[in-house]
Amino acid sequence: MLAAGLSALLLMATAIAVDVDVYHHFENHDFFSMRMMGDDGAFRWNTYSAVQEFAMDAGGEVLISGVSASHPISFSLYTYEQWDVYRSLVFQITSMAAYDETMALTCMYPAAARIPFDPRRTKNASAMSIRIPITVASQYTLQIESCMPAYNLVQAKVVMRNVAYDGRVTEHLGVDQLGLLPVYMIMTAAFVLMTTLWGIDCLRKERPTYAIHGVFGLCLVVRTFECMIKLWHYRVLSKSGRTRSYLSVGKDMCEHMTTTVLLLFLLLSSLGWSMRRRYLTQSERRIVQACFVLYVFVAMTKATCDSRNQVCQGYMLTEYVLKSLMLLGIIITLNYSIAQLQTKLENEYGRWTESKIPKMQVRLNLYLSLRYSFLAYLLLPTAVLMINLTVINPPGTWRYVWATYVFEEVVMACIFTHLGLVLRPVHPMTLDLLTQKKAT
């Protein structure tokens, strides 16, 4: 589960789409006060990251408009290589001598482009527009630097655009994210089809269905809705560079709801509910209800809070612990159910001497298949992280971040497909034929 958090951080390390309003106060501090504000050392007061590591291809552009400032500033655009060195000079400064070099380092360090702005020499600055063409593909960081030791209030609007599929410079998604739209279009269509087929299969009268089939159908519905929300979210980002708050929060909430319902399905299946036995015991019901009420509360709070807040980080840790405990419980109960069925097959009924044996063998095979799907779901975050670091995006590469999403979504689709094929309602005649065959 730690791998899940690491892979999420890797995928979120770059900006997805850029259309931002900058509003920042530059305020001069001495070295000792900055040491109090920073944990690992001081950071330079006169530099501010408007955009960090946004993937752009040759032919793209950076537009800066609506600029206002109290004192002269500079807009500096750094490639990934330049920014990699520059940020080591900006952050985690541990000596006063290094901190005193603020002006020379931040305002004169080599950059792909540097645009100075002096409000005293610029007339009608609010109507001015600055365009920086991109000639080299890289991950670009836009820094705003205040080059005078004085209080400075800066406002600006920054837009970064790439070349779209139609050849126009209108695409707000980064180059490394361009594949997300087709990915979620395909995933949405696939899960709509899967949900429809599952519903048709369950509604056929000659095939008996159980409550667990309804829970799995709910998993498919929630997963389909999650893919739709993600498609909507990235389409809005692609067109405007900004997402609506309800879309961003809705996307996170749907992800957590999918996880919650899938965990509920796996836990109920491992307990044998509606497959091996009709009811759970009272203690089992209380444990399941308590776990999922608490998990839903923590996960929804995490989805709607600001990850930079310490309280929100506490919810993130709590959600991680709860999910780990639930996965551990699923492993234990699933293996226990398999062991029980194997014991009954070997000891209680003998080998193929009773009519119940074929049905029990079918259930055992179902649990074994369920365990394979669960193991795939359990190992998916680690697999995504390892493949991302070694195959798709090894260190120094960035263009194909979207392929990591493809791998994760395809594996999840395969897991749902496998569960659907294993759990689909069985015609009664199938088991009767098995019974007759073994009896003879």
From TrEMBL:
Keywords: Membrane, Signal, Transmembrane, Transmembrane helix. Pfam families: GOST_TM (PF06814). This is GOST seven transmembrane domain-containing protein. It is found in: Membrane. InterPro entries: GOST_TM (IPR053937), GPR107/GPR108-like (IPR009637). One of its GO terms (cellular component) is membrane. Residues 180-425 form the GOST seven transmembrane domain. The chain crosses the membrane at residues 178-198, 256-275, 287-304, 324-343, 364-388, 400-423. PANTHER family: LUNG SEVEN TRANSMEMBRANE RECEPTOR. It is a multi-pass membrane protein. The keyword Chloroplast does not apply. Residues 1-17 form the signal peptide. The keyword Repressor does not apply. It comes from the Eukaryota.
